[in-house]
Prior knowledge:
Elements: E1 3-7, E2 10-12, E3 18-25, E4 34-39, E5 46-51, E6 58-60, E7 68-72, E8 79-83, E9 92-99, E10 104-106, E11 110-114
Amino acid sequence: xxxxxxxxxxxxxxxxxxxxxxxxxxxxxxxxxxxxxxxxxxxxxxxxxxxxxxxxxxxxxxxxxxxxxxxxxxxxxxxxxxxxxxxxxxxxxxxxxxxxxxxxxxxxxxxxxxxx
Length: 116
């Protein structure tokens, strides 16, 4: 069974930092773009960031640009999201995502709460 396993969420004060990680099990995704989405209570799931298979190109939502950094591991099969200068509006469940030619894979989500 193919799974995307996220880790690293938690509670942090405004202005703080967290690092999320996503590691696949059951297959490798080193040839695919990997990304992160988030869903806040009462809102639709939204795009946060994505990175190309090589790690050479990355894209960010305007709301996180300059504060979040997406990266891939050395084997290109894992993806991380470094989140700095966190704001209360960043509070959401964060999901790892990989879109292949035949299927859309999602992790189970990890909660990020930014609150004083």
